[in-house]
Amino acid sequence: MHKYSSLHLVAQGDVHLGYGLDAFEARVSRWPWMPWPDYFWGIAQADINVAPLELGNPFCEVKSELKWFEAGLMGIPTIASASEAVREVIRPGENGFLAQTEGEWYETLEELINSPAKRRGVGAKAESDILEGYSPETMGRQLAHLLERAASATDFAELARGMGERAAVPVNDLVGKTKEVQSNGVPMDSPKLKISWLATAPVRGGGGSRMILRLARALKFFGHEVTIYVEPFEFFRSRKELESFIATNFPGENVPIVMGLDKVEPSDVHIATFWLTAERLRDIPSRGKFYFVQDFEPFFYPMGEEYLRAEATYRSGFHHITIGRWCTKHLREGYGARADYFDFPLDRSIYYPRPVPADRHRPRVLFFSRPELPRRCYNLGLQALAKLHRRMPNVLVTFFGSDEIEAGSVPFPCEVLKNIADRDQLAELYSSADVALITSSTNTSLVPFELAACGCPVVDLDLEVNRVNYLDSEAMYLAPAEPQALADALYELLNDADLHQKQREASLRLAEILPNEEQAARRVEQIIFSGVGLGPAPLEQPAGTVGVNGNRGPLEGVALDVTCRREDGVLGELQPGKEVAQTFRCTQANLAAIAVKPALYGRANACSLELSLYQEGTDTLLQRVRQSVQDAKENGWVVFRFSPMADSTGRDYRFVISSPDAGPGNACGLYHSRESAYREGRLQTNGRGGKGALVFQTFVERLDGDAIRRLIRPEQASRSLRDQGGEKDGHVGPVTVPTMSPQLREELQSLRKRLQQMEQRQADVSRRVSDLHNFLNGVRRTLFYRAARKVTRILRLGAR
User: Fold this and answer.
1) Fewer CB near the last or first residue (10 Å), C or N of the chain?
2) How far apart are CA 660 and CA 662, in angstroms?
3) Helix (H) or strand (E) holding 563
4) In whole numbers, what is the pLDDT of the chain averaged over residues?
5) Which residues of 318-347 are buried (b: 16+ CB within 10 A; e: fewer)?
6) What is the C-alpha separation between 273 and 206, in angstroms, rounded?
7) Which of 439, 430, 441 is CA-nearest to residue 459?
8) Confidence of residue 527 (pLDDT cuts 50, 70, 90)
9) What is d(CA 692, CA 696) in angstroms, rounded to the nearest whole number?
10) Dihedral sign from CA coordinates of 311, 313, 318, 321
11) Any idea which of 84-98, 241-255, 542-556, 645-659 has the lowest mean pLDDT?
């Protein structure tokens, strides 16, 4: 760049360019993460594409040729590091360039800078090769051929060896192998345990039985040695009969089964799953005794011997693992028990909104009916639906979930579907309904969450158990446990289109924040490791609030106070023992939140960040908040929210960021600016001063909505006053702007100028952008979109 003054460098994404380019700041642009159409628009502006990788780094060596592929589609030549995948497709000097040393990079770049004809020729050849070799038709034929070979192969290892370097020989032994960075923070060399489950005989359609089998199967897949010991009672006479029942009613849940709790072997971990098995667990020697609680089981019985014996098991000193948050809350508060939960998991590959049948002309209400389980309040739901039928006789009421119901026993016309084992059929049923009635009086089942994921609004009982398990959200319509109240709730959802749509959207948002089945199993694994002293305790996950009018974010109801957002580097990984501190001056009252920007290094870190807030110059701790970064996004913020501090105006504070549960391969850094414009604070690492400042923002509990609108768009502020009735006799009265910090005022004025500049440029850019987007849409239709559809269809046909 020193030699060629016309050269301009653009870095897309979260790239640290180093210090050597500081002298060329005016000719270096950083573009953030962006939607893929905008990303391609950015590539189309370039003359040369560079794709450097760290050769020999295992992470980099598994990178594909995608960067050559993307630029080549635009006819742009690529210089790439000579990794294995890139060497397979690039023919140097013909359809791209390879470089390994600094000298090779310099020579190739200079050659392309000085030769526009070379750039065009190589770019054109790359485009031709990609369109020919990566077209949907070509890739479809290759995939079909591969699937045919796989389907006819009797030995996959032999098939892989026959394909040479294009395939890896499969490894059957999963024991001892884990992901490099597991989602629950367990290190790569995490121990493998012998885990024994103690269960009662499974029942057809039993959600509890299915959950035990799924968790056991997942732990087995994670590398643990897992066995389920089943007390068959009088239901099964042999293990073969039991295994046949499981294969028929719970397909895919393959876990070793042993008949009889008297055959339990010594293990690292024993997990009881019912109060009868918990009684047996008391007498079994074990390193770790756990109790998997899916409901408060004393509620299954009237007050008497069984109630008292079931209740006594919660005082046995076991570590309780509960599905849903209510059981953990109830056991902690009522029995002082050690308990940790995992949220209800969803398989989003199954449960999502399916197309509604075109021939359905009647509103449909689903009723999850389980008359054999008193806690599911079958008669209460039946009475509510009878009342609804009298008001809306055209409604189709569909009963599902039990084999104990006959249509003739229901006092109004209905449809009875019994138990449905096929989950795809269930998802289609859920998607076809307008509303569902669930009457859960004890711990919630998975069914309402599955309904919500399919976009079906749910009516349930307004009880503490449901309020806690539904994460205090408004995604479920909770009504009093009375037939008339439930009927009114169903009627309202069926006849108020706006309410129905809002409820549906809130249900989908709730489903989005729930874990998938692997994430839930990972949390169970973490609870087990914690219980036997092999890992940290799991973090309490914030419930949040999902309302019918939108998500409640961590910054709702606050206003920006101090901001330092320029970034030009990352402080290294925050490992235990390392602390980063930043001082600042709060300019307003009611300091309520601080946000920092973590660097995630492109991986799923399961550690947490801890913020400690002090009055500057003292060691008096004012606030301490801990936040997991497991769900943090690249280029996003981690927000620490705390109780507002009323006397914060003009005070100097110091916040300290640490990560006590980080580890190798499971840690994040913090973005900072070496030459920050923020002069009111200083940066420290382990007590030593440093240059610049962290990238951070602070917030106060106040929202100056009118003031913000007036600064950005004065005409919008006037309109707002008219909308609120502030206009009299055709005149708008004076606008009273609340006191605002100079920092916030400067930020908003800068934003207003940027908006004006963008509007001025829009007319000049719109034509070129439109042309490019048309081209990109054509690429999507002919290459990406159709290829994805063909591959998906072929995979589905192969699965059948």
Assistant:
1) C
2) 6
3) strand 559-564
4) 80
5) bbbbbbbbbbbbbbeeeeebbbbbbbbbbb
6) 13
7) 439
8) very high
9) 12
10) negative
11) 542-556
Give the helix ranges, DSSP H, for 557-670. Answer: none
Q: Is the four-CA dihedral 470, 474, 477, 482 of positive or negative sign?
A: positive
Give the pairing of strands 696-700 and 9-12. Answer: unpaired
The alpha carbon of 415 is separated from its chain's Cα centroid by a whole number of angstroms, namely: 37
The pLDDT value given to residue 131: 86
CB 198 within 8 A of CB 188: no
pLDDT, position 703: 46
Distance CA 122, CA 139 (A): 23
- Which pairing describes strands 269-272 and 288-293: parallel, antiparallel, or unpaired? parallel
Instruction: State the DSSP H helix or E strand holding residue 104, giving kind and residue range, or none if neither.
Output: helix 102-113
3-state SS, 433-498, equals: CCEEECCCCCCCCCHHHHHHHCCCCEEEECCHHHHHHCCCCCCCEEECCCHHHHHHHHHHHHHCHH
Domains defined for the chain, CATH in brackets = 1-33 (no CATH), 34-134 (3.40.50.2000), 194-342 (3.40.50.11090), 364-514 (3.40.50.2000), 554-700 (2.60.120.820), 704-724+741-753 (no CATH)
Token pair 């559809």 is found at 789
CA dist 332 and 396 (Å) reads 43
User: Can you tell me the distance from the alpha carbon of 519 to that of 534, in angstroms, rounded to the nearest whole number?
Assistant: 19
**Alpha-carbon distance 232 to 253, whole Å?**
18
For residues 149, 150, 156 and 160, what is the CA-based torsion angle, rounded to 10 degrees? 60
- Residue-wise pLDDT for 369-422, tens only, equals 888 888 889 999 999 999 999 999 999 999 998 888 888 889 899 999 888 878
CB atoms within 10 A of CB 199: 22
DSSP state of 299: G
Q: Give the separation between CA 70 and CA 74, rounded to whole angstroms.
A: 7
Do the bridges between strand 693-694 and strand 669-673 make them parallel or antiparallel, or are there none, so unpaired?
antiparallel
Count of CB atoms situated within 10 Å of the CB of 616: 15
Q: What's residue 799's pLDDT?
A: 62
User: What are the distances in angstroms from CA 270 to CA 194, 285, 393, 447, 523?
Assistant: 9, 9, 53, 28, 17
Average pLDDT for 348-357: 82
